[in-house]
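Proteins fold reproducibly. Look at a concrete instance:
___
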Amino acid sequence: MVKTTLDPALLKPLDEPSLDRMGYERPRALLDATDEDLASLLDLVNRPVVSARQFDKAQLVQLCRVAARYETKRQNVSQPLTGRILVSAFYEPSTRTRLSFESAWHRLGGDMMSITDPSSTGIAKGESLFDVGEMLNAYGDLVVLRDSHESHVYEMMKALRIPIVNAGNGLDEHPTQAMADIYALLKWQPELAMSAPGCRVHIGVIGVPARMRTVRSLLIMLAQFAAGIAKVTVITDADAPFSEGQLAELLAAGLKVEVTDALDAVLPELDAVYINAIAWTGEGKGYEELGVRYRLSADSPLKPDAIVLHPLARGAELDVSLDDTPHNWYFAQARGAVFIRMALLSAILKTFS
């Protein structure tokens, strides 16, 4: 039997995370800097959410305001979803997305049914997604679906009479992750939410927009805040980092985008750095690592006040030496995902107040 040494320090009472580090205090700053106008969220009521393109700036700002209210008043949140049932269908591995959606639903008082293995469903026997969707109409009030096939969320929508939320569909999109990213950015720089922003930030995105759904959806949403963004620099060693029409769409929306393969050369200029190195390649193929030569650590030439974001889970690209530095906003980013998903679910089911 192996004996372990127990550190008494680990047994002390646990406190809430310190509000003066990693952005935990910032929900209040966002609330103070913006005005509430929930009318824009009425367009989301009883609607499916499948793409970042569905949202305009006003809706994103108001969703982030609702999230900030939930985050600053966690103990006083009512439970408007009591009696409502979520179908949490994750046909692809997930930790943060699945648990944050389920946490959000539970915090709002709802119940749920979870599916984490398609082989345990009628799909394994050849049942069509249309028929699955038809059955879910009777069993739940909202579906959250993650699937490695880009088309499956759209196929299921044809039968659904309840809302569905895309929690990641193959290489295509991950709109609610982008919302969590935007929420983190607005807490960091609330001026981005204003009509006439007082800041012009330079954002770096380390990744491959053509093959990373998180990056694709983030760039689409960043375009809504182009007035406050000096430029977005995409750092990649991919020969073709954008899919057909992707860059043109961003430029047409007013986002200034440049591309480089020299990370350390551009890092000292960046106010915020978003890094990802993992892309889902589809059923039976697993994940692939992209841009593995790009790594961030406490020794990287970051601006002193730059923040680092990562959708997680991380690998060697994001060194743990950054965890205890002011650059670490990725844990607060993951934490905020619960509250932005609470805000979105509240809007879809019209339970916000």
In short: The radius of gyration is 20 Å. The chain is about 30% helix and 15% strand.
